[in-house]
Amino acid sequence: MTPTSSDQTKLRDAVEAARKRGRKLFAEIFAGEEMKTSEEFAALLGVSVATVHNRRRRGELIGLKGAVKGYRFPIWQLNKDGKPYAILDELHDRLGGSWSVYRLLTQHHGELDGVTGLEALQKGQDAQVVDLAETVGRDFS
């Protein structure tokens, strides 16, 4: 059965509505108080901006790229000692990028008894979070 012009219009409208929701969510995430600029994050870590970006490129930090505002770094990727969680590079390896790691850590997961990946890290469940990333990376890529 061939789609009608009306079906194509509905699909196009639905896709555009989804894009608008995505842009709005992106703007909300990027503007959040927990999101720090490269300079702010470097100051928190006591390192240079260049070091922050080198660590981001190696997957040791979550750095989310904006359209025009550069990178933002969620402050919650630092543990109670003010250090980045040690498994961030493993998560990047399994998931392929900061946005995927961000989603894994901010969404609730049945595999983690309903808590977010971040909450599991805060409880010291690093191995379970890495296992989840392995599953997500394998099943959804």
The number of distinct β-strands equals 3
**Amino-to-carboxy terminus distance:** 30 Å
Report the helical percentage.
55-70%
- Fraction in beta strands: 5-15%
Low-confidence stretches: none
The chain-level structural class is mainly alpha
Mean pLDDT: 90
Number of domains: 2
Q: Globular, elongated, flat, extended or rod-shaped: what is the shape?
A: globular
- Major β-sheet strand ordering: 1-3-2
Q: Count the DSSP helices.
A: 7
Gyration radius from CA atoms, angstroms: 18 Å
Question: Would you list the SSEs in sequence order as H and E?
Answer: HEHHEEHHHH
Task: Describe the main β-sheet briefly.
Answer: 3 strands, antiparallel
Protein name: Helix-turn-helix domain-containing protein
Task: Summarize the entry for a quick read.
This protein is mainly alpha-helical and about 140 residues long. It has helices spanning about 5-30, 40-45, 50-55, 90-95, 100-105, 115-120, 125-140; strands at about 35, 65, 70-75.
Produce the secondary structure layout.
Blueprint: H1 5-31, E1 35-37, H2 38-45, H3 49-57, E2 64-65, E3 71-74, H4 88-95, H5 98-106, H6 117-122, H7 126-139
Antiparallel strand pairs: 1-3, 2-3
Organism: Thalassospira xiamenensis
Protein name: Helix-turn-helix domain-containing protein
